[in-house]
Amino acid sequence: MRSVVSWTAALIVAAFVGFWASTAALAQSQPAPDLLSKEIAVGIKEAPPFAFKLQDGSWSGLSIDLWQKIAGRLDLRYHYVEVPTVREQIDGVASGKFDVATAAITVTADREKTVDFTQPFFSTGLGIATPLNNQPTWRPVVRALTSFGFLQAVLALIVISVVVGVLIWLFERRHNEDFGGGAAKGLFSSMWWSTVAATQASTGDFGPRTVPGRVLAALWMMGSIIAIAVFTAGVTSVLTVTQMEGLVQGESDLGMVRVGNVENSSTVAYLDSTHINHQGFASVQDGLAALRAGKIDALVHDKPLLGWLVRQNYASNLQVLDATFDQQQYAMAVPLGSPLRKPLDVALLQTVESDWWKQAVFQYLGEK
What's the topology of domain 28-121+331-365? Predict the structure, then answer.
């Protein structure tokens, strides 16, 4: 009898604890009464397609639609406060001016020191915008002619030519007056002959006369034809590809061209860490205008933002390369220890896991 009573009591206690825990969790996922009674200040900046103004002055975009969906779930009253930069969004949240900030805010370690972030709602990375129609320029030629591969090929030809010249001198110095007259004179003559022979130019009667010398000369002439043909084809291929595809074909080319970026963006940290020289612009639009004008060769910024602006305003002049690098995540920023963070996390996860979110992403970005 006592065991039955003990088990019953234990079950009652367990049920009570479970009910209390679920009630506490539900309470944490709901905004505190003081948040429901106030109007939330939302720091916002233009970052199409995540946040942009319509002609009537209202806001639209992927992040705007997401915020409105979340605010509806939590019955939050809010108003937008526009600022020009992400830095001002972060500073506004850190100082308490904003209760939350959203648009296209990248989560970084430096920003995490001053604000808290919600669960990320979009994964992205950096992209590269380049000119679409490449104008003829000498820079690809200079770049190809000063590349390490080009210098290696030239050095290899010089070394082989010197070796052949020395061997010709050793074979001919005692049997051919063209290569006689002392070591200095003979070596100079043999080097000159080796160079002229490699270019397939006529040497007249000037050349080897011994059997070993003529065998080596024949091998050198045939080998030089192949070597120069391969060398010429390689250089031509590099120049053709560069002219067709542009100076920048991927992330690895950024160190050799004029790169632009948006000031005070997370892109700066990446470019600095990879030791890529860069020129800052006040906005993405300013950077794209400079790219179109030929003042820079590439603009590095968040890929979805670049893609949107190029498609909207520069489709006939610029392109965004397929490459995506330095993966990043967008999230909403809230003050450190904000009671709004937990409710936002729950509502955000519920929203991004829904079919509505998939449709919204496809609507603005064309991604499924």
Answer: D-Maltodextrin-Binding Protein; domain 2 (3.40.190)
- Confidence class of residue 34 from pLDDT cuts 50, 70 and 90? low
Q: What is the pLDDT of residues 275-306, one digit of tens each?
A: 999 999 998 999 999 999 989 999 999 999 99
* Average pLDDT over every residue of 166-184: 80
Chain centroid to CA 276 = 12
The total number of residues written for the chain in this structure:
368
- Fold agreement between 28-121+331-365 and 248-326: yes
pLDDT tens per residue, range 306-331 = 988 998 889 888 999 988 888 899 99
Q: What is the CATH number of domain 248-326?
A: 3.40.190.10
* CATH architecture of the domain formed by 140-245: Orthogonal Bundle (1.10)
Task: Output the six-digit token pair for 280.
Answer: 């800052």
More confident residue, 243 or 147: 147
User: In which band, very low, low, confident or very high, does the pLDDT at 221 lie, cut at 50, 70 and 90?
Assistant: confident
pTM of structure: 0.62
Q: According to the 3-state scheme, what is the secondary structure of the chain?
A: CHHHHHHHHHHHHHHHHHHHHHHHHHHHCCCCHHHHHCEEEEEECCECCCEEECCCCCEECHHHHHHHHHHHHHCCEEEEEECCCHHHHHHHHHHCCCCEEECCCECCHHHHCCCEECCCCEEEEEEEEEECCCCCCCHHHHHHHCCHHHHHHHHHHHHHHHHHHHHHHHHHCCCCHHHCCCHHHHHHHHHHHHHHHHCCCCCCCCCCCCHHHHHHHHHHHHHHHHHHHHHHHHHHHHHHHHHHHCCCCCHHHHHHCCEEEECCCHHHHHHHHCCCCEEEECCHHHHHHHHHCCCCCEEEEEHHHHHHHHHHHCCCCEEECCCCEEEEEECCEECCCCCCHHHHHHHHHHHHCCHHHHHHHHHHHCCC
Q: Would you state the pLDDT for residue 5? A: 43
The domain ranges of the chain are 28-121+331-365, 140-245, 248-326
